[in-house]
Design goal:
Length: 149
Amino acid sequence: MQKYKYLEHTADAKFESYGKTIEEAYENATLAMANIITDTETIEPKITKDISIKSENLESLLYDWLEKLITLLELEGFLLAKVKIKKIKEIKKDTKEGKLHYYILTATIQGDTYKQKYELKTEIKSITYNDMEIKKDNNIWTITAVVDI
């Protein structure tokens, strides 16, 4: 199974990622976005970071996750080499205040800071909800996303 592919888009970058699990589809979406910026295979996995993200649904979880990676690039110069989504867990709880429903993503990423050592192809300005879709069909998860370049 192919990990991801880039789709035609008039002004921005659009991709579709695939996985047998939601975690695998998120990993492949992460790589698709990271490879818009640079060639992830050339990045040395010198730095390891554990990350946890909490959001109210799968689309906002994807948005928040990809936005976190863009923020790491902007603030720390962090370029992704490898990603492992450990778990995407759905939480449903009944509380005195009402029902709670959210998702938690836990991941480990590896990479390096660019410090003029790596070639950057383009800059991603932001993640968008435009054309974002997460679906499961015939036991394959598909994520479609657009990033503003």
